[in-house]
Specification:
Blueprint lengths: L5 H6 L2 H6 L5 H38 L5 E7 L8 E8 L4 E6 L8 H7 L3 H4 L5 H4 L2 H11 L14
Antiparallel strand pairs: 1-2, 2-3
């Protein structure tokens, strides 16, 4: 008779516990086959749960120009932070909009350290409230226009 640690015994099925006193190679193979089948069924169930997400991702990747991704840079992370840059690209990387905005207040040094946008860069630009819904119009126009060449490395597009 073989003794099993309690954690091993607790993890065994009733059939495995019943068979624990006598083993034969065929029985061990059958137990391993049952374990593998149970794992495959669990994996299938997980994939079924992910089905809608997988279908969404496949549609998303099938036409990367059909989806746009907005990005903003702000004066901070609080609810009162102001926008200093708005950018919109397609999933494939086509830039539809990339513009700096004057936040109407000084840009904190902590924010500038992250996005490298300074007060001097935005001092003569429009405030976000002036830009308003024209951002959405510009994005739609940009979708239908020829994309502009990318800015030189390290330089922001205005």
């Amino acid at each position: 008779m073989q003794l099993y640690p309690l954690t091993v015994w607790a993890a065994m099925s009733e059939r495995e516990q019943a068979m624990a006193d006598w083993h034969c190679p065929a029985c061990d193979r059958e137990i391993e086959r049952e374990r593998a089948q149970a794992q495959r069924q669990a994996d299938r169930a997980r994939w079924d749960d992910l089905g809608p997400a997988i279908a969404w991702a496949q549609n998303f990747l099938a036409d990367p120009e059909a989806y746009s991704v907005p990005d903003t840079e702000t004066t901070g992370l609080t609810g009162t932070a102001r926008i200093v840059e708005i950018a919109v690209t397609t999933v494939s990387g086509t830039v539809l909009l990339d513009t700096l905005l004057n936040p109407g207040e000084p840009i904190p040094a902590q924010a500038t350290a992250i996005h490298h946008i300074t007060d001097a860069m935005v001092q003569d630009l429009s405030e976000p409230s002036v830009v308003g819904s024209s951002v959405f119009i510009n994005v739609e126009e940009a979708r239908q226009a020829e994309p502009p060449p990318p800015p030189p490395p390290g330089q922001l597009r205005q």
